[in-house]
Amino acid sequence: MGKIQIKQVRSKIKRPDNQKATLIALGLRKTNQVVEHEATAQILGMVNTVRHLVEVKEVK
User: Fold this and answer.
1) What is the DSSP string of 1-60?
2) Which range of residues forms the domain containing residue 31?
3) Average pLDDT score, the chain
4) Is the pTM of this model over 0.70?
5) What is the CATH number of the domain that holds 53?
6) I need a labelling partner for 30 at 20 to 30 A (CA). Which of 1, 19, 36, 54 fits?
7) Shortest CA distance to 51 belongs to which of 9, 21, 2, 1?
């Protein structure tokens, strides 16, 4: 599987606890922070949970 870059583009303020916990589990703590992860099923599921708060790019 390839790598993906995940960037938090919206705030987690006034979001449900599960979405806040998902962002922390992905390693995103601040807006505009970028992290890289392997594109595993678990990571993609987490990204799907917070898809309205993040941008995802495939890393080559």
Assistant:
1) --EEEEEE-S--TT--HHHHHHHHHHT--STT-EEEEE--HHHHHHHHHTTTTEEEEEE-
2) 3-59
3) 97
4) yes
5) 3.30.1390.20
6) 1
7) 9
